[in-house]
Structure formats: structure tokens, C-alpha cells
Design goal:
single chain; mainly alpha; 0% strand; Thylakoid-associated protein
Length: 95
Amino acid sequence: MPKATDKLEELSKQLYDLQRNVFDKWAEATPSLQSLNAINLPETLDKNIEFGEEVVKSALEVQALATQMSIEAQKQIWDNYFEMIRRTQSTVNKA
């Protein structure tokens, strides 16, 4: 089973990638001052739609990872709890 620290590193990397992707898409969609007079409105709208879609997709991936990490942490807690109960019961039965 993967360690919680591995999942945390993976989450941090995905958050970094999301931020980098958001910035890159924003930079692509934002016209430079030199080309402000020659804005291609349909292309700009398409890029803005793609940007919004990418932000939502990335946010859902991060939410899915966070949910998975939470479930795995809960599973580990319960597994440890029941193992402790079994050991306690085994010790009591031997006494």
C-alpha cells in the first residue's frame, strides 16, 4: 500500500502542475500589448473556453486524488484498529 507521504508528494506535484497549466493557458489566451489592436475574437474565445475546461478538469483530478488519499488513510486507521483489537484479544486469551 502506498505511503501517505507518497500520496502527499503526488498531490503537491499535481497542484504545481495545475498552477503551471493555469498560468500557461492564461498567458496564451491573453493578447500581448503589441497585438492588442489585432485581437482575433473567435480565437480568443476558443482559448478562454479551453482554459476554463482545463481548469475544471484539473480541479476534478485534484479532488479525486484528495478523496482517494482520505479513503486510504481511513482504511489504514481501521486496519490498524482491528489489528490492535486482535492482538489484545490474543493476549487476554493467553492469560
